[in-house]
Amino acid sequence: QVQLVESGGGLAQPGESLRLSCAAAGFPFSEYSMSWARQSPLKGLEWVGTIYSDNTAAYFVDSVKGRFTVSRDNAKNAIYLQMNNLIPEDTGLYLCAKGLGPSATLGQGTQVTVSS
């Protein structure tokens, strides 16, 4: 079955960077788009960005454009989320997903907290 395991979250101060990783298994990874979403009590579930099988990426939250980068390594069955210049509003549970939208399969998530 699909397995998605996120790592790399933690506590960061505003302006700092974090890099999240997601290890995937149980499906032909290179054939699927992979995404990052985040969940918070205030905003609910937000789709942050996706990377397609052709390695192009798209971002869906205006506030992360220019600060966050989604990448993938098909040889390692992994995707990454590089988050720079973090702001408190980036706080949330970050989830890796196979696919995008309502039909996506989500991982358990890794918590990111941005606070001074």
Can you walk me through this structure?
It is a single chain. The chain is mostly beta strands and 116 residues long. The termini are far apart. Helix content is 0%, strand content 52%. The mean pLDDT is 97. A hairpin with a 4-residue loop joins strand 7 and strand 8. The strands form two sheets. Strands 2, 4, 5, 6, 9, 10 and 11 form a seven-stranded mixed sheet that branches. The protein has a four-stranded antiparallel sheet with strand order 1-3-8-7, with no helix packed on it. It has no helices and eleven strands.
Jot down its keywords.
single chain, 116 residues, mainly beta, 0% helix, 52% strand
Quick summary:
The chain has 116 residues and is an all-beta fold. The chain has strands at residues 3-7, 10-12, 18-25, 34-40, 44-51, 57-59, 68-73, 78-83, 92-98, 105-106, 110-114. The model has no long low-confidence stretch (mean pLDDT 97).
Radius of gyration from the alpha-carbon trace, in angstroms: 13 Å
Give the amount of beta strand, in percent: over 45%
Overall average residue pLDDT: 97
- The 3D shape can be described as globular
SSE pattern: EEEEEEEEEEE
Main pleated sheet: 7 strands, mixed
| Share of residues in helices | under 10%
Structural class: mainly beta
> How many individual β-strands?
11
